[in-house]
Amino acid sequence: MLLGSIEAGGTKFVCAVGDENFQVINRIEFKTTTPAETLQKAVDYFKQFTELKAISISSFGPIEIIKTSAKYGYITDTPKINWSNTDFLGFMKNNFNMPILWTTDVNGSAYGEYVTANEKIKSLTYYTIGTGVGAGTLINGKFLGETGHPEIGHIRLKRHPDDLNFPGICPYHGDCLEGLVCGPTFQARTGHRGEDVPLSDHVWDIMAYYVAQAALQTTLSILPEKIVFGGGVVSEQFLDKVRYEYNQLMNDYIDVGDLENYITMPTVKNNGSATVGNFALARRKLE
Amino acid sequence: MLLGSIEAGGTKFVCAVGDENFQVINRIEFKTTTPAETLQKAVDYFKQFTELKAISISSFGPIEIIKTSAKYGYITDTPKINWSNTDFLGFMKNNFNMPILWTTDVNGSAYGEYVTANEKIKSLTYYTIGTGVGAGTLINGKFLGETGHPEIGHIRLKRHPDDLNFPGICPYHGDCLEGLVCGPTFQARTGHRGEDVPLSDHVWDIMAYYVAQAALQTTLSILPEKIVFGGGVVSEQFLDKVRYEYNQLMNDYIDVGDLENYITMPTVKNNGSATVGNFALARRKLE
């Protein structure tokens, strides 16, 4: 039995097939161009695998996840050119007569981390801090967000005293979480790309202060057993700074145990969380 | 069949018995003194009602709600004098041989609003803004917070430009949500009690800016179908200001429908949400 994974990003698609143990058997990446061309490439890829039994799609958004909506399975009004109002799930269903699961990119990653966590956990939040900022939360195997997917990337934060003049770069909100810590903020703040800014630069402390607040808000409003940070901005050294700021902000108010186990990098390496998550979701959809 | 409700506050206890339709049949209030005296009063009260079949307690905290914990049913390390490490649930169980439910004060109120909502809803967050700030969230009939109860009162917020010099009054965090908007902040900011500060005073706009952020963070991180605000600070006129600030902050990013239905006062009048919630929880515990 083979399971299919589509990790649909605004820049690239990653399609993969895996076995029942969620091991990758085959994998392909291609650039996200027009919907017609890109989705057809995904279809052509999976058509090669006759043993495929189910597919899970975790997609960039915003997407419609309310099953009773006429637009269920669509990418809705995205800033990504050509992709607004794309019936992604419908296109796949027209090509494959099998169960197909539909969820957000961060939910796919969250599920991958949930099923591969080193300890048995009941709840987990997965943040991605990259081109954008988003998060998915699982509680007892179910995604948080009954009426749609939350957009925690746009919460407001207490500003760092050394960063008060930076207006933030979110086109909707200016200095929301995403507008303060997504990858492109390095260019906006320093004129350099993030990978060229050494971790000794104070801008990383400012970033850590905000990301720690994101973790704090999550603890205080959801209290998951673990918070995982993925995405291009995150490294283990950066998370050390985040843990430090988190401790300062929390001030011993809620004990979440050892912060090294509570705020972590993904267990699945090489950005593979969503692929594993999709395999697991595809298998669950079959059952 | 009669159902029992204990709304245990740090200032007073409200005990009530109600029928299967959650109508109050009898009700008593008394001051919160020592644990021994106060809990005995609750016991004596309920002993009068031979038809009592179940009790639900929604208590001030922090409380232990993890069932596998040795301290399950306790009020843990509260600043309330004499009450730290009080085995509240155990005391009641020693006196009554019937199902007894144990949850937080805000969860009790959230459940009361959930079962009395005018429309059928799947999820709801209830905030109290009074002496302290807290919230309870229900999703599909279950409380959010598997490993303990969240403490959303202590999230950080973007500061209002006209309020930057106010340090906040939370002993743990200074300018967290509670430190910025709980009832006693009126005294700290203006030297007057909240009920003596007219709604035309700019301090109410500042309060609304922060409370709107609390609602916004809730929408963006949990996306409940409804957010209810109770507690002494809240009025319908104040919520109008909150809705205005919420709209500005959200900037059309997520459509939650008519804000008049999304951000509301409690449906149950006269601070009765927790009593109704307890009756409903007691009945559920019986089933």
TrEMBL record, chains A, B:
EC numbers on record: 2.7.1.4
Matching entries from SUPFAM superfamilies are given as: Actin-like ATPase domain
The species this protein belongs to is Paucilactobacillus suebicus DSM 5007 = KCTC 3549
Q: According to its UniProt record, which cofactors does this protein need?
A: Mg(2+)
Highest lineage ranks of the organism? Bacteria, Bacillati, Bacillota, Bacilli, Lactobacillales
User: Sorted alphabetically, which Gene3D superfamilies does this protein's record hold?
Assistant: 3.30.420.40
The cross-references to InterPro entries, in alphabetical order and at most eight, read: ATPase_NBD (IPR043129), Carb_Metab_Reg_Kinase/Isom (IPR051804), ROK (IPR000600), ScrK (IPR054618)
Q: Which residues form a coiled coil?
A: none
What GO MF terms are annotated?
ATP binding; fructokinase activity; metal ion binding
By sequence similarity, the record places it as follows:
Belongs to the ROK (NagC/XylR) family.
Reactions accelerated catalytically: D-fructose + ATP = D-fructose 6-phosphate + ADP + H(+)
Per UniProt, which keywords does this protein have? Answer: ATP-binding, Carbohydrate metabolism, Kinase, Magnesium, Metal-binding, Nucleotide-binding, Transferase, Zinc
Name of the featured protein: Fructokinase
Question: Known Pfam families for this protein?
Answer: ROK (PF00480)
